[in-house]
Sequence to fold (457 residues):
Amino acid sequence: MAKESFDCIIIGSGPGGYVAAIRAAQLGMSVAVVEKDKIGGRCLNYACIPAKAVLRSADLMSEISHAGEFGITVGKPEVDFAAVNARREEVIGTLVGGVEMLMKKNNVEMISGSASLTGPKSVSVDGRELEASQAIILATGSVARSIPGASFGGAVIGTEEAWALEALPKRMAVVGSGASGSEIASAYARFGVEVDLFEALDRVLPSEDKDISRLVEKGFKAQGISVHTSTLVSGIESGGSSVTFEYGDEKGEADWLVIAAGRSADVESLGLGAAGLELDEQGLIAVDGHLRSSVEGIYAIGDLVHGPALAHKASEEGIIAAEAIAGENPHPLDYEDIPRATFCTPNVASFGLTEEQAKEQGFDVTVGKVPYGAVGAGTVYGDRSGLVKIVGDRKYGELLGAHIVGSKATDLIQELVNTKMLEGGYPEVARTIHGHPTMSEALMEAARAADGWLVHG
Fold:
């Protein structure tokens, strides 16, 4: 059987793969995308988008519960979880349809099946032989990783299954308080589920700045989440309708135990060896700034390579890879300045260095911290407890990092990212007029604090 030829073959249709396909097609390449499951990959169908759809329902639950503080009297809200799930599926369906339309519009051929490399520029898809005249892009994402002494099955589930529960449980245990675990705990607690959140390290969201973690933990406890830091979970035994486990000297039981302890690159079925590719000590594919692997003609993006496992990072890498294949010279990513967003309540967003990291790297550090309550909008909109923290280099006025916890943090962070990317610093933010009354004024005030002349504080 003759091989079908394309300029570029992409394995995986998640936020990295489908964006790479569209960009490659825009640059004049014939493109095929191989997907073994559903178009849009895990992010669109099982993770990012379903999570945010459920979290939005939880947000509304919280807002309605506090309506009385704003002079609005309503009855006690109740959760129709079947309707929450129906809306989640509607959101997924709408966005999947949008991606399918974009693929057709750009003449990208979708091929359903499991792909395996048979050489540096050849792919087999369930017996169908494909050849790439220019390059192959690997974009298969990641799979859930368990914890020592535990395996998935029964009432022990991963984060993707947690967002697709058919009914609200009474009790849930979440192991791991990174972004995914924190989002799950925050959503279900606000739906009235008894939630225990376990973290092996000494604070929730341990990769975030310490000041931010402290406020998040306070917010979690206010939602009724039982937070257990510096705590390992062991002795997990899944029964027919519940799961038992041990933590410290105590025993626990829950309807579901969610393991949110990280993910591993999804490469098991790719046949990397046939193409001469090997994984590094972290289980990732080594690439250069243009996402080229050690094998000519093979590129890898997203969760398969170094850097934060974020959908928007994968999408940008897909664009860079496509442009590099087309002979352009795209600017490599600065991974430190990719915004990080966690959609729990309170929202958390950040980029760059924490205060501790900046000091460790020898910068002359200045810090500007301003609570939301310092600006009018914080009081008007009912969130005085949020915080903006800017970490800067005093010598040059450079923005080394920014960290926000509170309402709309995931939107607010972008201004500071853009400022740095456009070679501005915190003094420029401090002297840029911001609309009043808006939460964005807290960014301006934090920048003024870093610059030594806080007005509202």
Notes: The mean pLDDT is 96. The radius of gyration is 23 Å. Residues 81-105 form the longest helix (25 residues).
